[in-house]
Specification:
The chain has 281 residues and is mostly helical. Helices cover 80% and strands 0% of the residues. The chain has a domain of 120 residues.
Length: 281
């Protein structure tokens, strides 16, 4: 019977760990206090560092696997990236190593986008022990939304910003421009990545509110500062200096900030009720 018991234990362990993962409640302490305690006790801090190292190593392994797979579709991805400029025929390499650097940059962005669900899942596994059961469920359900928002930001940059910004850049002062692949691909991939990252703000505001790090009142009180910061970001990110393209960047970011306030209010709305129930118990 012992071999059968070992096999049964081996099969049931993952389910038991999954059950404990969602049912176990951490100590009722804010995350800031937990971090302060970790710094005061180096042994526990080193334990967290060791756990973080495992998550980072697994994430890097998955990222390398995705990069290897994406490398097989490099030509198709280069064609896709060069469509806003009119195709690869519009690009002229100067340096010998320039095509290699261009290919690696495209592969890295594609690999990061492909591995994003797993990377977010590893981050979730690292912070989950400090979260409540409700926050764990919400965090797990938010992973697909993180991916959707990131791809939405990249699509916004590719299908709206690039077609409107590139003609102005290329025809500015009617100066003939010889487009290098390195500068063009660095510009396009950087624009797509940062738009994808900025589109994550509403979800980030929601999750930080659930984890008691952020409150909706902070976002509401500082909306004027946020608009100024968004204007500066729009001026930096916008590929051109005309106000039309700047507004194309600024308006969605302001709407995303408003959506972040709304989601933060939804996340913080149940907190007073939960704290009242906890205090009454």
């Amino acid at each position: 019977m012992k071999p059968f018991q070992l096999v049964g234990k081996w099969i049931s362990d993952p389910f038991q760990k999954t059950r404990d993962f969602f049912l176990e409640e951490p100590g009722d302490a804010p995350m800031v206090d937990s971090l302060q305690l970790a710094f005061e006790e180096p042994a526990s801090f080193l334990e967290h560092v060791g756990a973080l190292r495992k998550h980072i190593m697994r994430s890097l392994a998955v990222l390398l696997i995705c990069a290897a797979v994406c490398f097989a579709f490099l030509s198709e991805m280069l064609d896709f990236v060069s469509q806003p400029i009119g195709g690869l025929d519009q690009l002229s390499a100067v340096d010998v190593t320039e095509p290699i650097g261009v290919g690696m940059r495209v592969v890295l962005l594609a690999a990061f986008a492909a591995a994003l669900p797993y990377l977010i899942f590893e981050i979730f596994l690292f912070v989950a022990p400090a979260l409540s059961r409700r926050a764990r469920v919400i965090g797990l359900l938010a992973i697909p939304l993180v991916v959707i928002f990131f791809f939405g930001g990249m699509a916004f940059a590719y299908y709206l910003i690039l077609p409107t910004g590139l003609p102005i850049l290329l025809n500015f002062l009617d100066v003939p421009t010889q487009i290098r692949p390195s500068s063009y691909v660095r510009f396009v991939t950087g624009l797509m990545f940062w738009f994808g990252a900025l589109f994550e703000f509403p979800l980030l505001a929601y999750l930080l509110t659930v984890m008691r790090i952020l409150s909706p009142s902070v976002l509401v009180k500082n909306w004027r500062i946020a608009v100024v910061v968004i204007a500066v970001l729009a001026a930096v990110i916008t590929p051109t200096i005309d106000p039309i393209n700047m507004l194309l960047v600024m308006v969605p970011l302001v709407l995303l900030y408003g959506l972040g306030i709304l989601l933060s209010l939804l996340a913080g709305g149940r907190r007073p009720q939960e704290e009242e129930l906890t205090s009454s118990d």
